[in-house]
Write a structure and sequence with these properties.
heterodimer, A: globular, B: 114 residues, mainly beta, six-stranded mixed β-sheet, four-stranded antiparallel β-sheet
């Protein structure tokens, strides 16, 4: 069974204080690992897809990395508008096109 | 262009009633997904449509849940004889094709069963 565990559950940062969110996964053949951002009352917003270990992708203050067992979402010099819940999901080769999500990390960036 | 749209945005119903939730995917997207997000839990896969292929219904929690997709576009998720544990946000997503491509989500329908 595919499993995704995200840590920490919640993270409070001061503006400008860099940190990382963790996503550990167990999957029988990874097709892709996805990061999404979700604001309260809205649907998840796509951020990144990573396909193989060693891959990295960047977007503004965010950088996602992937190993064979986990992914990290690095946030550099965050701003209050980065406050949201960050979701990690995996798609397994044997599970069709479904995504298996973690429970998310709720990030709060204080000014 | 327009994103995924869902209606209604909120639905309050009484236990035992049937409800229908609608999803309009992004134009040209052949793959459509339904997920459920319960309070304090991660998103849970329900069903997946890809073109004219038979849908993957493996995530539907009971036979009270069904979904259809007409004309390869709009989809309706139906929950019969609703129960209080069905209360959740129901999210629809679409992607250009199935497989490893990103899924784009709609705003969701918040269902409350009294």
């Amino acid at each position: 069974e595919d499993q995704v565990t995200q840590s920490p559950e919640a993270l409070r940062l001061q503006e400008g204080e860099s940190s990382s969110l963790n996503c550990s996964y167990t999957v029988s053949g990874l097709r892709g690992l996805f990061w999404y951002r979700q604001d309260p009352g809205k649907g998840p917003e796509f951020l990144f897809t990573l396909y193989s270990a060693g891959e990295e992708k960047e977007k503004e203050r965010l950088k996602a990395t992937l190993t064979k067992k986990e992914s990290f979402l690095h946030i550099t010099a965050p701003k209050p508008e980065d406050s949201a819940t960050y979701l990690c999901a995996v798609q397994a080769k044997a599970s069709g096109s479904r995504l298996t999500f973690g429970e998310g990390t709720q990030l709060t960036v204080n000014p | 262009g327009a994103g995924v749209s869902q209606s209604p945005s909120n639905k309050v119903t009484e236990k035992g009633k049937d409800v229908e939730l609608r999803c309009d995917p992004i134009s040209g997207h052949t793959a459509l997904y339904w997920y459920r997000q319960s309070l304090g839990q991660g998103l849970e896969f329900l069903i997946y449509f890809q073109g004219n292929s038979a849908p993957d219904k493996s995530g539907l929690p009971s036979d009270r849940f069904s979904a259809e997709r007409t004309g390869g576009s709009v989809s309706t998720l139906t929950i019969q004889r609703t129960q209080q544990e069905d209360s959740a946000v129901y999210l629809c997503a679409s992607s250009l094709v199935g497989g490893g491509l990103e899924q784009f989500f709609g705003p969701g329908t918040r269902l409350t069963v009294l």
